[in-house]
Structures are given as C-alpha cells and as structure tokens.
Design goal:
By secondary structure, the chain is an alpha/beta fold. About 40% of the residues lie in helices and about 15% in strands. Bound molecules: NADPH dihydro-nicotinamide-adenine-dinucleotide phosphate (NDP).
Length: about 280
C-alpha cells in the first residue's frame, strides 16, 4: 500500500452556512471501551481532523478524552454528534445536547445532527437545533437519514437549511434522486457505511483497484469524493485508517465512475427508515 500521509486532510467543502468541514472523517460506531480513543489518536496522527460520533454509539466520553489528549488545538478538529431517537422533541433535544456536550467535554459542537426523522417528532427536534445554532452552541446543524419528503417538510418549516444529510451510501445503494435533491438545495451529503461495513468484495471494484493501483476501499471512497460526497469510514485498525485516507491522489475516469454507479441494487447494509419508524414513529 502506498503512503497515505495527506497534509490537507482537513480540507473540505464549504457548507451552506459558510463554514467548512473535512471531506474525510473517522466514524466510530461500534468502537468502544477505549478502542475509539486509540482509533482517534491514530487517525489524528495520520492527518484526519474530523470525527463522527452519536449518543447511540455510547462513546462520546471516549471521543472527548481522545480530543483532549491528542495535543491539537480544539479549533483544528471537527466533531459531529447526534441525538438518539428516544431523545427527540424540542425540550428533550435540548437536554440530549447538554448531555452530549458534557460527555464530549466541548463548549461548542461543530455539527449536530438529527439522527433519524422520527415521525411526529423531527420537526420539533429541528426547531431545537435551530435554537442551539442561534445561541452559538453548535457551529452547524444538519440531518441524517432524511428522505426527500422529510427534507421538504424541514425546508417548508424553517429558514435554516440543514448543512448536511448523512445517509447510507455506497455502490450498492447510490440514491441518485436524493443526491440530486440535496445538491439542488445546497445540502451536502455525507456517506455512512461507505465501505458497506467491510463487505467490499465486489468484482468491479477489485478490477478497478488493480487498474488504478489502489485498494478496493480507496476506489469506493474516491467514487464518493468525485461525487462531492463527504465520507466517514470507520476502522479501529491503524493500517486501515491510513488506507482509508488514501483517495485524494488519483482520479477515476468518468466511464469507470458510471460503471460503479451501475452496481446499484438499492441494497441497505444498515438500519432503514422503515426499521426506525416501526420502533419510534409516533
Ligand atoms: P463502514 O462502511 O465504515 O465499515 C466499517 C467496517 O469496515 C468495520 O468493520 C471495519 O473494520 C471495516 N473496514 C474499515 N476499513 C476497511 C478497509 N479499508 N478494508 C476492509 N474493511 C474495512 O461502516 P459504518 O457502519 O461504521 O459507517 C461509518 C460511520 O458512519 C460509522 O462509524 C458512524 O460514525 C456513521 N454511521 C452513521 C449512521 C447514521 O444513522 N447516521 C449509521 C451508521 C453509521 P475494523 O474497524 O475492524 O477495521
């Protein structure tokens, strides 16, 4: 594997409220009991500057320790968190935010997301996020797992447009209409499970990895990047954390980009809106 040191890993797109976030972040879902701290330390050494956590991951305290111990000034890091589905509604969200902020040990959170559009609750939740944004407790607010219909409701209700929509996105789930809707409204897309939770054994991706002299993970992450999508791959292994940062120094041809697009099967590897709605919808 080639060296993956990228001095500009903190570079990224400007969001619709004027701030920037890195193109690459470290996901820490399922990293617990100190694993998250080691992974974050390694990631920061390798040049990562963004971390994606959530109350649901039960590791915000570990993320907070890693941030405090990493030796970087706070302003060089970009930290995202999200409230869980049973914490939605206006007042509950404000409480959930305070709990996250305390666990993370942060005065200001960079990006706070509505984790899922919980039916009957998410519009009030969004109002609480707008309040947090207006009082300066968060630098930006966004959503996660929102379909077009949910985004339309938020756009209708609120003058504050989500800066990002963080969604499951990978070659087997390309979600073109949702991507087009987000682009049209200046909502940046972030891909969760970009590596399909490690099931990246696709013949075309391997063929392209050979062709470009890259790994399968790097091909997929580059495909996201060329589509203007932020990625937050998760790993607790230093070599993979390094590998996953190695997609900035090559270009996939437009023909090969389209071949990857055609792998779409609308197939999820993670939780779906229907799963969440059945459990939490009001
Ligand atoms: P990913 O697609 O990032 O895959 C992570 C899995 O792939 C882990 O098992 C990891 O193993 C393995 N892996 C990592 N790098 C490589 C590599 N280069 N080659 C082969 N295998 C690899 O899945 P996630 O579901 O974790 O998604 C990423 C992040 O997105 C989460 O951590 C979380 O922050 C966020 N997320 C958000 C959701 C939401 O609802 N908003 C839902 C789910 C995730 P190992 O760690 O052992 O290296």
């Amino acid at each position: 594997m080639q060296s993956t040191w990228q001095p500009a890993l903190n570079a990224g797109p400007q969001l619709n409220n004027g701030i920037s976030m890195p193109w690459l972040g470290l996901g820490v879902y399922k990293a617990r009991n100190g694993e998250e701290e080691q992974a974050i330390q390694a990631a920061i050494e390798l040049g990562y500057r963004a971390i994606d956590t959530a109350t649901f991951y039960q590791n915000e305290d570990g993320v907070g320790r890693a941030i405090r111990n990493c030796g970087l000034p706070r302003e060089e890091l970009f930290v995202t968190t999200k409230m869980w589905n049973d914490q939605q509604g206006y007042e509950n969200t404000l409480k959930a935010f305070e709990a996250s902020r305390k666990l993370l040990g942060l005065e200001v959170v960079d990006l706070y997301l509505v984790h899922w559009p919980v039916r009957g609750k998410f519009r009030e939740t969004w109002k609480a996020l707008v309040h947090l944004y207006e009082q300066g407790s968060v630098r930006a607010i966004g959503v996660s797992n929102f379909e077009i219909e949910h985004l339309e409701m938020i756009l209708k209700d609120s003058p504050v447009v989500p800066v990002v929509n963080q969604i499951e996105l990978h070659p087997l789930l390309t979600r073109k209409p949702l991507l087009e809707f987000c682009a049209a409204h200046n909502i940046r897309v972030t891909a969760w499970s970009p590596l399909m939770r490690g099931q990246i054994d696709l013949p075309l991706v391997h063929e392209l990895a050979q062709k470009y002299g890259k790994t399968a993970a790097q091909i997929i992450l580059r495909w996201d990047h060329q589509n203007g999508v932020i990625v937050i791959p998760k790993s607790v292994h230093r070599e993979r954390i390094a590998e996953n940062a190695g997609f900035f120094d090559f270009e996939i041809s437009s023909e090969d980009m389209q071949r990857i697009d055609r792998l779409n099967q609308d197939r999820h590897v993670g939780t779906t809106y229907q799963d969440v709605d059945a459990l939490y919808g009001a």
